[in-house]
Each structure stands twice: as structure tokens, then as C-alpha cells.
Amino acid sequence: KKLGIALVGLGNYSTNQLAPALQETEKCYLAGVVTGSPPKAEEWKKKYSIPGRNIYSYDTYDQIKDNPDIDIIYVVLPNAMHAEYTIRAAEAGKHVICEKPMATSEEDCARMIEACKRNNRKLSVGYRLHFEPHNQRVMELGQQQVFGKVKKIDGAHSFVVSNDPDRWRLNKKLSGGGPLMDVGIYCVQAACYTTGETPVAVTAKFGEVTRPVYFDEVEQSVSWQLEFPGGAVANGSSSYNENKNFLYGEAEEGWWRLQPAYSYSGIEGRTSKGPMNYPQVNQQARQMDAFAECVLENRESRVPGEMGMRDVRILMAIYEAARTGKRVLI
Ligand code: NAD
């Protein structure tokens, strides 16, 4: 049996990545949607042949508990809404995939994990790169010390926000923060999955604000340095005012580089031994199938809520370090 997934929030990521990916999945399918927009509901219903009974609004959301077609709820809302919609999904008896960043505070992450545990539901975070072959190779190179111990990691993930200053990404209440929360998180994740460790301390600083009309609530850019218990040091940076996308790792006897590292497709990599030859895959399809498998086989996700919470803790430590100028212990 294929498990039914309902997408909550039909914005850019649901529309252009998740719904198409759900046409390629083998263990799950697009069973329903939750949207505040009746025209969108109509459009999705037609386009994906979704039965009317599987279309919900934010007002009818909790009624999903009575719908056996829906096994998994996928929360694809602005960051600050993840906690509430994840907890309500768990209370409705559904397994949950929550987009990154898992929430805007560690306390919210803890409440989400607790709600899923209490309702005996599985929880995972939308960390698609754990299912991407080049990034998986980096995990192996670093964690299995293929080139010896990891010494240094460099990463950046940045893009230029377009000229709509009202976007939720620039609204601190909805986003929880700027580029760090949105895309810098990929570099933090990458440093952790390269080493297989959680950092113990961080220093950081905010960049200059050159477009104050946009960046009056969230940072325009931030850079940081994470210290790992095994001795590796990871430099990261993230900005909403330039385009960057790479991950570099250096070990005692070799190095590797992905560029772009975090995109939906077209990821390219090489190591000190030569080019990496791995296929491009549909990351989201793999990620959702892997979660469906966990539900079907009663296993934990490789990207569980606990990992999402650890990362939010690191993001908050980066903000604290940037704000205070001090080295912050994690
Ligand atoms: P988006 O702005 O395109 O979509 C957000 C959706 O939420 C919209 O449909 C909007 O109508 C709805 N919404 C409901 N209540 C809202 C409110 N109060 N304010 C604003 N919007 C509201 O955003 P997106 O790019 O689809 O991002 C959604 C989530 O997915 C974010 O958490 C983001 O970090 C995550 N995301 C993840 C990836 C990934 O690669 N894993 C990529 C893009 C986005």
C-alpha cells in the first residue's frame, strides 16, 4: 500500500518541488492538501485528481484525524508556523514531515518531538540532502575518515532575495531570522554530517546591512565558525544579497568539494583523487519514500526531529555569538 501524504501550505516549494516529486514516489502519493486559498484548492484538485474529501482549509485542518486516506502530513509553511501545525498533525494521529528549519526555537522543537512521541507518531525534517548521492559520499568521506581525520570545512549558501520586501522570509516573526534560518542551515547541517559530530562552540558575526529597507528585521548576512569535538573547524556563511552554494572539506590526506552542493539538481563534486561520478536523483522523492518506509517498517527516520532540534540549537548559538561577539558554548 502507498501511504497518503497531505501537503500543508501550497507555496513555492510544495508547488514546484514536492508535488512533482510525489508523482515519482513509490511508497507514498499526494493524497490531500491543506490550503487557505479556494482557487488553489480547485486547481490542485483538478491537476492531481485529489478527491474533494481530502482538501482542507486551515479551519478544517484538525478534521484530518478522521481521514484514513491521509497517513502523513507534510508541513510546508513559514518557519514560525511549523510547530503548531506539526503538533496538531500529531494530535490528529498523523505522522509528520516538517520542513527546515524545524522551528524558530529549541523549545518549540521539544514540544513537537513530545507531541509526536505522546501520539506514537514518527517525525522527520525535510533534510533532502541526506538522500542525495554526492552529499552522501561526503558523509562517508568525512565520517569514515577515507582521507584521514577531517580538519577543515568551508561552506556557503546564499541567494539574492527578490524585490518584495513583504515576503515572510524578511519578517522575523514568521521566519525566526534571515538567511541563516533559511539557507545557512544547509552549511550547518553539512558540517555536522561531514564530521558525524555536533559542534561544541561557535563564534560568529553579522555582515554589513547595505539594503536597510529589506533587512530591518532579519540579518542581511552572517558568518560563523563551528568547533567540533574531534578537532575539525567549520567556517560557514550565508547571505540574502549574493549567490553562493558550495561545500569544501579538508582531511589529513585529501579534500573534496561540492559546487553547487545544496541545489535540487545539478550537484557536482570532486575530490583530491578526481571527479565524483554519481547520478542526479529526485531528492524529495527519495526523502519522502524513505520516510514512508520508516512508517511502514516502524523505524526511525535518518533525519528525525531530534536532529532538527539540534540544528535549531546551533542556529540560536550562532545568533547569540553574532549578537554578543562572544564564543558561545553549544
Ligand atoms: P512560500 O512563501 O512559497 O509558501 C508558503 C506558503 O504558506 C504559502 O502558500 C502561503 O500562502 C502559506 N501561508 C499560510 N499561512 C501563512 C502566513 N501567515 N504567512 C505567510 N504565508 C502563509 O514559501 P516556501 O518557499 O514554499 O517555504 C515554505 C517552507 O518550506 C519554509 O519553511 C522553507 O524553509 C521550506 N523550504 C524548504 C526547502 C527545501 O529544499 N527543503 C526549499 C524551499 C522552502
Automatic annotation (TrEMBL):
Instruction: Answer whether the UniProt record assigns the keyword Oxidoreductase to this protein.
Output: yes
Assigned keywords, A-Z:
Oxidoreductase
Q: Which SUPFAM superfamilies match?
A: Glyceraldehyde-3-phosphate dehydrogenase-like, C-terminal domain, NAD(P)-binding Rossmann-fold domains
Please state every residue range assigned to the domain named GFO/IDH/MocA-like oxidoreductase.
136-244
- PROSITE patterns assigned: TAT
PANTHER family xref list = BCDNA.GH03377
Q: What is this protein called?
A: Predicted dehydrogenase
Organism of provenance: Pontibacter ummariensis
